[in-house]
Design brief:
By secondary structure, the protein is of the alpha/beta class. The protein folds into two domains: 8-104, Oxidized Rhodanese, domain 1 (3-Layer(aba) Sandwich); 117-211, no CATH class. It has helices spanning 12-17, 29-32, 47-52, 54-59, 75-84, 98-104, 129-147, 156-167, 174-190, 195-211, and strands at 8-10, 22-25, 43-44, 66-70, 91-95. Helix 7 packs across helix 8 (156-167) and helix 9 runs antiparallel to helix 10 (195-211).
Length: 215
């Protein structure tokens, strides 16, 4: 394994500007869904899951990637980055101030306010959810490309299909749809989509999922 390197202490603004970084929220599920919200386009992998199989976590991210761990205040994420730095090939870091610091910096945060009802997409069934998400993601992709904001071109249909096949391999459920939404948002953030729009779309589609019959 690589020699240990000092991990990155990224400010909220730096993490927001570095589209290529992976932002990994290491908090428990109930905390990520709690009152302080979460960073748009962050991936959720709780600490205990990472530590249970470090090699599997490392394999889920490109070897030359930079991974910034996120918690509430930055303390737990810094400890995890320091612990894992000599064990994985990726460059690791912590979000200074955590989710609280991100919000304090005036950056968009998911889950702080319920979206207006008119902004929540109408999804009649679990099976119709992918089509609604595809329509939104495709429109956002086209707009970003036309405005020159996106850092790469995306085939929206291919992205959605790949994420669905991975997250819903055992059948479509509300739980797997939450994972699909998270992964699509991560791809959008790393492609350079605007954070406020990612936040709005996440909040709207989370509300749509919550309105579906649990399965």
């Amino acid at each position: 394994m690589k020699e240990q390197e000092p991990f990155i202490r990224a400010s909220a603004r730096q993490a927001a500007d570095e589209h290529g970084w992976y932002l990994v929220d290491i908090r428990p599920s109930e905390e990520r869904r709690g009152a302080i919200g979460f960073v748009p386009g962050s991936r959720h992998v709780a600490t205990e899951i990472i530590l249970a199989d470090v090699d599997a976590f490392a394999a889920s991210v490109e070897k030359d990637a930079t991974v910034i761990f996120v918690c509430a205040s930055g303390r737990r994420s810094a400890a995890l980055a320091e612990q894992l730095a000599p064990r994985v090939p990726q460059r690791l870091g912590t979000l200074e101030g955590g989710t609280l610091g991100w919000t304090a910096a005036g950056l968009p945060t998911c889950g702080l306010h319920p979206p207006p009802p008119e902004n929540v997409p109408t999804v009649p069934s679990i099976e119709k959810f992918p089509r609604a998400l595809l329509a939104c993601f495709a429109a956002e992709s086209i707009e970003n490309t036309l405005d020159g904001r996106a850092t790469s071109e995306l085939d929206a249909n291919a992205v959605i299909r790949k994420v669905l096949d991975s997250a819903c391999a055992n059948g479509v459920s509300t739980r797997c749809l939450e994972t699909v939404l998270e992964r699509v948002a991560e791809i959008a953030r790393r492609a350079g989509f605007k954070l406020p729009r990612i936040r709005d779309n996440i909040d709207a589609f989370r509300a749509a999922i919550a309105a579906l019959p649990a399965r």
